[in-house]
Amino acid sequence: MADETPKPSELLSKIDYHTPSTHWMDVPVNIRKGMYCYASNPKSVEYLGLPNARAWNPIEEDWKLPENWQQILHEGFKERLEKFRSIKVFMDICVRCGACADKCHFFIGTGDPKNMPVLRAELLRSVYRNDFTLMGKLLGRFAGARPMSLAVLKEWWYYLFQCTECRRCSLYCPYGIDTAEITMFGRELLNLLGLNIDWIATPVANCYRTGNHLGIQPHAFKDMLEFFVDDIEEITGVRVEPNFNKKGADILFITPSGDVFADPGTYTCMGYLMLFHFLKEKYGLDVTWSTYASEGGNFGSFTSHETMKRLNAKMYLEAKRLGVKWILGGECGHMWLVINQYMDTMNGPADFLEVPVNPITGTRFDNAASTKMVHLSEFTADLIKHGKLDLKPERNDNKILTFHDSCNPSRGMGMFDEPRYVIKNVANHFYDMPANTIREHTFCCGSGSGLNAGENMEERMAGGLPRANAVKYVHEKYGVNMLACVCAIDRAALPASMAYWVPGMQVTGVTELVANALVLPGEQERTTDLRGEPLPGMEEADE
Amino acid sequence: MSVMAQLVSRKEAIAGKWLARVIDTYPPETARFLRGQQDPFANPVGQATRHSLNTLVDMLLAELDEAAARTALDPVIRVRAIQAFTPAQAVGFVFDLKPILRESLGPAAQNSEESALLEDRIDRLALIAFDVYMQCREKIYELKANEMKNTTYKAFARAGLIKDPDQGAGQ
Fold it and tell me: Would you call the peptide bond into A534 cis, given omega within 30 degrees of 0 as the criterion?
């Protein structure tokens, strides 16, 4: 008998360590804590007049869907296929070559195959084939088709909110399929059933009501900027005087409200104020802020194209009301996707504005001839190129910098060199990250497209891993201690990512660096940077 | 040839087998990618895992320095702590090394003193892995708590409810 008892080694050798190979359609969705954001607050959904507002919980079995939810989705799908030729093409054209599969930061970070962009899109395409193609109707699963079910709907919701619409995958697609638009489309369908997340729905409602995501009312917005004015005076001895809602100003400036309220974006915001003060004193340039168009970001674009349009409209409306010549945009990410890709046809043409010309240098921004909106880094780079700023880059000598290309300004508008040019002129120590992680190949911060909440920290850390991995490399190799970027979500999200993956790395906006180096007319000798940290060589003076 | 010398001569094969098992804790489509892509920036998880395991095998066959083991384990545990693994799955790969070593030694050497020493080192490594895992999870909870705290604080500040101590109560 004893001889029949298997030996431990025999038992161990029989263990199969391979994960069972199961077809993706048969792998059930597991909505994991930390990987999703809380459901939208029904009050916010209602405020926007969006359908099916109700309280629901993603991890509960019953999502309290309207009875005819499948019909709503089918009709929503059909309507958009007819309306948007691009969506129809994206549904049909993919040959599943896999070029995109391993390019997504969420796939790389989570290791979940359903985060391969091709498979994430396939979640929608399978239903498209079932409902709208002859082959799908005839051959069913054999043709990659499957009917819509509650399990499929939950899978859509879970994975469409594990995409930051960064478009890195699209860069490698031989057909140029814009996966960001597929996600936008998918989320729009989910919104028909009231299935959004609160980190998006409430900012959108706030923006619709008070003009910005945080729901800051005009007087509070002005108060916040006044606080910065006090801080700037303390550091530089110069009292800057921002214009608010000034009719007849040369330029309207619009930036994400995150810069006004969230550290370290607030230092970038102080930078804007100082730069505009300098240009006013030296060259008489009149820039105005608006307490109405007080948000550059557009979380509406993560909701539906109609909501995106409604929130975006205020930019041109305010420019028209104030009678400015053109619009200058601050350091934001998806704001530039909306501006460059959709604003002109959505709310334009802005033929009441002029083709932007920098009145100080005479440079005409032909790239913005249609939108009439120039990025602050383009504007600053132009000023520096013409020697119009008085700079002391040595004030940033204790900062060893690298630059994170934000997804939208890089892939959405092709802006690669201007921010680098600015940084290299206002600081002396700059090292780029490896080539396949920057410029058009840049990795997302992992928290874009409305995913920078607190409850989904595991999701954010997983999505942020590839970016952080490249930062860690320059941190270890060159001693880089400061990560510069031109996006408010980056500034809000990257500090947490760095705290987990690359402790000791700080995050800054580019204009904060500019303002540190900028010599304001009549300023006192500065001993600290905008954060109150001693300037290089001023450590003792600060004590 | 001593047990340790035998293992040292086969350490690359041992590390390779260990890596294969760790990579097979992922779905097959992902495992293919983790195994195949050699660029450390395109495949940070695969390359960090490979690097960590190679270092740990070297360390186990020489001397187990706890601080160095912690440093070597950190990158791979830090990744697994946020992925869809249970705590046991996240750190359990350390124990996978035991059957690999047994297999590599053959029956005769399995009861040797050195073999017992190695198994003891692996147990210690597993405990260090558990410590690192908990530190990572605690960091995640700290980050979550801070995000929530900041949101609440800012909401109060916007409502004018935050006063500096030197402003006095009545202001």
Answer: no
Tally of domains in chain B: 1
Give the residue numbers spanning the domain of A44.
24-196
Q: What residue numbers bound the domain in which B124 lies?
A: 3-136
- A433 and A420 in contact (C-beta within 8 Å)? no
Same domain? For A324 and A458 the reply is yes
- Give the distance from residue B62's alpha carbon to the nearest chain A alpha carbon, in angstroms: 25
Token couple for A37? 């954001």
CB contact under 8 A, A108 and B21: no
Asked if residue B22 is part of any domain, the answer here is yes
Give the DSSP letter of residue A412.
I
Per-residue tokens: B168: 């006095």
Within a domain: residue A1? no
The upper half-sphere exposure of residue A269, i.e. CA atoms within 13 Å in the direction of its Cβ, equals: 29
Q: Select from B24, B136, B144 the Cβ nearest to the Cβ of A455.
A: B144
Name the minimum distance, in Å, from the CA of A46 to any CA of chain B: 22
Q: Is A51 helix (H, G, I), strand (E, B) or coil?
A: coil
**Whether residue A232 is found in the same domain as residue A140:** no
Structural domains counted in chain A: 2
Is the CB of B45 less than 8 angstroms away from the CB of A465? Answer: yes
CATH number of the domain encompassing residue A164: 1.10.1060
Tell me the two tokens of residue A237.
Answer: 């001895």
Q: Which residues of B are less than 8 Å from A102 in CB distance?
A: 33, 37, 42-43
* CATH number for the domain harbouring residue B112: 1.10.490
Residues of A in contact with B140 (CB under 8 A): 34, 457-458, 461, 500
Nearest-CA residue of chain B relative to A219?
B158
Q: Is residue B164 part of a domain?
A: no
Contact yes or no for A332/A373 (Cβ under 8 A): no
pLDDT per residue, tens digit, chain A (543 aa), is: 455 677 777 766 666 666 567 899 999 999 999 999 999 999 999 999 999 999 999 999 999 999 999 999 999 999 999 999 999 999 999 999 999 999 999 999 999 999 999 999 999 999 999 999 999 999 999 999 999 999 999 999 999 999 999 999 999 999 999 999 999 999 999 999 999 999 999 999 999 998 899 888 899 899 999 999 999 999 999 999 999 999 999 999 999 999 998 889 999 999 999 999 999 999 999 999 999 999 999 999 999 999 999 999 999 999 999 999 999 999 999 999 999 999 999 999 999 999 999 999 999 999 999 999 999 999 999 999 999 999 999 999 999 999 999 999 999 999 999 999 999 999 999 999 999 999 999 999 999 999 999 999 999 999 999 999 999 999 999 999 999 999 999 999 999 999 999 999 999 999 999 999 999 999 999 999 999 999 999 887 655
B149 belongs to a structural domain: no
Domain boundary among the residues A139, A173, A196 is at: A196
B23-34 b/e with 16+ CB inside 10 Å = b? bbbbbebbbebb
CB contacts under 8 A, A 228-247 vs B, are none
Q: Which of A7, A96, A102, A221 to mutate to test the interface with B (most CBs of B within 10 A)?
A: A102
State which of A171, A196, A221 marks the end of a domain: A196
